């Protein structure tokens, strides 16, 4: 299988750098082909602006969405964007390795998403008419690929639980996992999270490395987070969850298949990419089971 690691940390000798190197080693030993996009080392341009396009359409008001759509169709995006898009389309799985800064990802990684996720590639895909709002949330150009976040956090695990002062980690990661990975069709694996990352002893790192190796060895057979697909019959014509679904749940967990609910009718993609159609049996997941 082909695996892309998108690495977003300014120091290659950091804990994030060590986890990235471990992933490259473990996956390569398993026979997978690995590419790494080390964004800081690449001096990745994080700002999405008119420089991302070789030609502009010449209108008075610049629209990034309009220019992105045309440039993606005409193959006139900047070369760095097209290179990362080619890696994404090549990959069977994508691992995002980064520290959680201010409850989100580093700006350089956010800029990677904003520039690489072109109109016509990650959004604006499929039919948009009637009650159908395009191929998104479980469908799209990235369907058939797997994605996993591997992140480091400075705080303690209890701070990131449902009653913890920082909020539940699964809620904090929802915009990334559901909105940026599931939206264009990737199957999203539970994240690998390291807490108190700046206080790890060598002995604790050995445990972390062992746990991460176990996760990597099951990158292609672990069940993904069972998000509901947009066009699977669970949402109404306004994309609101139908009242018969999500009993006894609230908040963001409404968008996960619940125990006893039938899986949606999203078609299983048959392609060169790995795809698991399993959507059930996920009752015991929590986001910190590294």
Automatic annotation (TrEMBL):
Limits of the Flavodoxin-like fold domain = 1-215
Superkingdom as given in the UniProt entry: Bacteria
InterPro entries named among the record's database cross-references = Flavodoxin_fold, Flavoprotein-like_sf, NAD(P)H_dehydrogenase_qn
Coiled-coil spans in chain? none
Alphabetical UniProt keywords: Oxidoreductase
- What's an example GO cellular component term for this entry? cytosol
Q: In Gene Ontology terms, what is one molecular function of this protein?
A: NAD(P)H dehydrogenase (quinone) activity
What Pfam family is a match, any one?
Flavodoxin_2
Spell out the family assignment given in the record's similarity comment.
Belongs to the NAD(P)H dehydrogenase (quinone) family.
Q: What is this protein called?
A: NAD(P)H dehydrogenase (Quinone)
> Which organism's genome codes for this protein?
Dulcicalothrix desertica PCC 7102
